[in-house]
Automatic annotation (TrEMBL):
The lineage of its organism: Eukaryota, Viridiplantae, Streptophyta, Embryophyta, Tracheophyta. It comes from the Eukaryota. PPR repeats lie at residues 151-185, 186-220, 221-255, 256-290, 291-325, 326-360, 361-395. Belongs to the PPR family. P subfamily. The keyword Cell membrane does not apply. This is Pentacotripeptide-repeat region of PRORP domain-containing protein. Keywords: Repeat.
Amino acid sequence: MINLQSKLFKFRISTLNSCNIVPSGPPSYHTRSRSPQERPRKIFKRKPIPFIADLKQTNVAEDVISLFHDYQRSTVSKHDYPSYSSAIYKLAKLRSFDGVDTLLGRLRAHNIRCGESLFVGLIGHYGKCGLVDRAIHLFHEMDVSFNCVRSLQSFNAILNVLVENRRYCEAHDIFRDSRRLGFRPNSVSFNIMIKMYLEKGEPENAREVFDEMLGREVEPTVVTYNTQIGFLCKRGEFEKGKLLFEDMVRKGKKPNEVTYALLMEGLCILQRFNDAKKMMFDMEYRSCKPRVLNYGVLISDLAKRGEIGEAKRLLVEMKKRHVKPDAAIYNVFISYFCREDRADEAYRVLVDMQIAGCRPVAATYRMVFDGFCKTGDFGEGLKVFNAMSTSGHFPRTETLCCLVMGLLELGKVDDVSFILEEMVKKKRVFDFKSWEAIVKDSCAQDKSFDNLITEILSYCVN
């Protein structure tokens, strides 16, 4: 018995030693011993590509092309796919599509293998600019000229471009031709087609596509239901939209904040504001927290009906619930005040949103600028113009012409010169009628505007 115990004790000691465990020390639950073979991991930072880093600082199409050629000549290594794709994206964003064609030609000539994402993004840019034929051509050239395998992603991209640009017959044809092209439409494909028929005002055909989707065992998404619910609610058919909502829940699809916002909008159209508000607060019981979009529906409806005080109270309540207002919410208030010729209050909202950390968009500035020009407060309008220029935005030329003429009446020649200089920098011009009105207004003033008229005429010639 003693011999057996001693053997077990020796076995335990040898096992602990082989595992690098010291039995005499107390166990530690806060540190981990490192084995001799284990080495600390080195964190490698990816070095930025110099060309791409310089490209980010360039915002003129001609400079992008020049930079591309300069790097091509000065560096030993040739441009690769990341360089080409970055430059092409930049040119497309700047709407320099001749430059895009130039780089695509070089890409093809050098036989550089491309990723599909480049073409998907480019097809989208073509679509936004109405260059649908270019988008179609690129889609067909992807596998032929660029050795890039097309997937459902590029198929859906071209399908969406056709629908967005109201090329409905071609969208229908390419969708029906999907099998021959080697694609099996997914939920995104069907969603685009449902959207198309609803835009055309053909809900029966949209329903047929939805039924076909189910027949092909393609699972509908929340977007599938939201598209149809939104269409019905905007037509005042809230009850039909609600039935579709209930069917959606019954089939296990969880509604999101967009779903509820569409239903709330439907109730507001029927002047059932209290029901819409109740629906928003009932959302949380269905595990869907109200978002800025839902508050926006209620605030917009209140502003339309002139109940701006109630809208302000809802804004306060929204902030208490830690829902941060976005630019669209603030724009509702600014639009209301400008419509009521209360541009000074609209300006206060503009200041408040900036203090709250919300960045104004172009429409925000333009509404306030137009509001001041409408009420004849050209000094404040000039302040907003300065803020717009600093932020990279620019007002409509029609309203800017109104500001220039207003400043001329006040004798503020230097301010008019400043505006004209900013227009030259931003490559903006007045049309002939605007120039004619400005020159006539300058000549009609009692003060001497000879220098300004000369300056204006020089801008006209340039």
